[in-house]
Amino acid sequence: MLLLMLFLFQIPTPPFWSYWGDGKAEINSYTVVQSRYNQPRKATLVMIYVTEPFNLSKQVKSDNSNDKDPNIISVLKLNKMKKFQTGIYDYTLMTSVFTPVNTYSIGKNHFDGGAPLKVNFSAHEWCGISTHQLNRTEQGMNSRQLSYFESEGDKFENLKSDNQTIFADNLFIAVREVLAALPAGNYTYYPTLEYCRLFHKPLTSVNATIQKADSKITVGNSSVNVTHWTITAGSQIWTFDVEKESSRKILTYEFRNDSQVIESGKLIKSVRLPYWKLNQNGDEKYLRQIGF
User: What are the pLDDT digits (tens) for 202-214?
Assistant: First the structure.
C-alpha cells in the first residue's frame, strides 16, 4: 500500500475526548426487524463504538499508541453485529467501520473529518462465508469482495470517492455528528456492503440527498428532542432519529428500498464498558446491562 501522509486540519473539541477518551466502549443494543427471503425476521443488533490507535499505512489497529509517530492516528471504530434466524439456519453479519478522528490526506487528496478510511463486512450462514472490504487509497476506495457465489467472487475494483461521497455503512457514525457536521445537500452514495450481499446487488453509486430537521419522538413515557435525518438515494431511503444530547445516540432508524422495509431498529439500552476485559466465566452477567 502507498505510504500515506497525515495532515491534521481540524481537531475535535475537548467534549469529544471527555466522552470518547475514557478508555471504554459505548455498547448499544437494538431490537431489529430484518427482511430476508421476503419475510420479516426478528434480529438482535449490537453496535459498539470505541476509539483506538490505527496504523494509517497498513490500515489496521496499531499495536502501540505512540502519539509521536505520524503514522499512528486515532479512529472512531464501529462494530455492528447482527444475528437472526431463517427457518432451520441462522445468519451472523458483522460490519466494521474505521473513521479517523481528525481530517487527513492520502497522497494529494484531502478528506474531511468523518470520512471513513476502511469498511469491512462478513456474512456467516449455513451456505457459506462472504467478505467484502473497502480501503481508501489515493485513487478512491479499493474494493475486495470474496464470496462462495461464483457470480460475486472474487472481485477486485476501485471505486471513485471524494468528500461528497457517502458510504451508507458510515451513516451510523456520520449522523451522530460527533466527528464532523454532516451538511444537508447532494452527495454520491454507495449502499451498505450488507445490502449488496444479502440482495446480490453490485456496489455501485447513485446520487443522493441528505435532509435533516429538529423533531421530537416519544421514548418510553418521555418526549425526546432529536435530529431527524432522511437520506434518499434512488429507491433507497434511510431515516434516523438521533438524540440532541452531546453523546447523540441513534434512537431509531429505518432502511427502505422502494416500499419494502429492509431493516428497522429501536434502541434498547446503552452502556459504557471495557468489554475486552470482560471475558471470564461469569462476565456473561454484563449482557443484562444491554438488555440481553
Answer: 999 999 999 999 9
Q: What Å distances lie between residue 271 and 48, 112, 249, 288, CA to CA?
A: 10, 29, 11, 11
Is 5 a domain residue?
no
Beta strands (DSSP E) in the chain are: 25-36, 39-55, 60-61, 72-86, 89-100, 104-106, 109-111, 118-125, 128-137, 140-146, 155-159, 165-167, 185-190, 206-219, 222-233, 236-243, 250-257, 260-273
DSSP secondary structure, 4-42, as one string: P---------HHHHHHHTSS-EEEEEEEEEEEETTEEEE
Does residue 66 lie within any of the structural domains? yes
Residue 25, domain extent: 14-290
pTM: 0.93
Q: Is residue 6 in some structural domain?
A: no
Cβ–Cβ < 8 Å for 163, 174: no
Phi, psi torsion values for 255, nearest 5 degrees: -130, 120
Contact of 152 with 164, CB cutoff 8 Å:
no
The residues that bridge with 243 in the sheet, in sequence order, are 226
